[in-house]
Amino acid sequence: MAEVTDLDPNQFSCPICLDLLKDPVTIPCGHNYCRCCIKNCWDQEDHGRVYSCPQCRQTFTPRPVLGRNTMLAEVVEKMKITGLQAHTFADCYAGPGDVECDFCTGRKHKAVKSCLVCLASYCETHLQPHYESPAFRKHKLTDATGHLEDKVCSHHDKLLEVYCCTDQQCICYLCTMDEHRGHDTVSAVTGRAEIQKHLHVNTSEEEQRLHTAVLVNYGSDKH
């Protein structure tokens, strides 16, 4: 077994409370939770008599009996003794300038990805359903970013994936069939690259003009 100091404590955090697992239990799909966390979650689903995993959304009927994961509990206890918990989880919390996870309760963790379909940002733990559940397979993930609403068309609630060269603005594909019909358009990625290229050329030309002016002025002072 690997040394406790070689383990990543993030692998032993509860997907619900995001703290190190307390009295860890494993449910039938293989995911681990604090006993109290998954119990409270399933208590809210008692009315439907169908219980789901908060991570992969697999459902169970009847309500599974929660069995303690003894091996996992021992590893967590050793991690607490070595003091890894405080150091690692402090690094996960969002600070000034970080994008916060929209699904963390209490103190927010840093978001690692943003979903352009959900218009939400996720920490490593809350992002897992996007990787594991077929329901999220077509969602578009990007690096964690704030102001996600700026990436969506205010008229059609679609992603701004098209750049209108005629009006010099990003639009969605529905806009190309509406007010921007017949306009010269390219993908937003291509449009961004062209703008950056243009800015670079203009900057280079400005720098060259400035350099020339300095040489002229310097030459005049010498005389």
From TrEMBL:
InterPro entries: E3_ubiq-ligase_TRIM/RNF, Znf_B-box, Znf_RING, Znf_RING/FYVE/PHD, Znf_RING_CS. Residues 14-57 form the RING-type domain. SUPFAM superfamilies: B-box zinc-binding domain (SSF57845), RING/U-box (SSF57850). It comes from the Eukaryota. Keywords: Metal-binding, Zinc, Zinc-finger. Residues 148-188 form the B box-type domain. GO terms for molecular function: zinc ion binding. This is E3 ubiquitin/ISG15 ligase TRIM25-like.
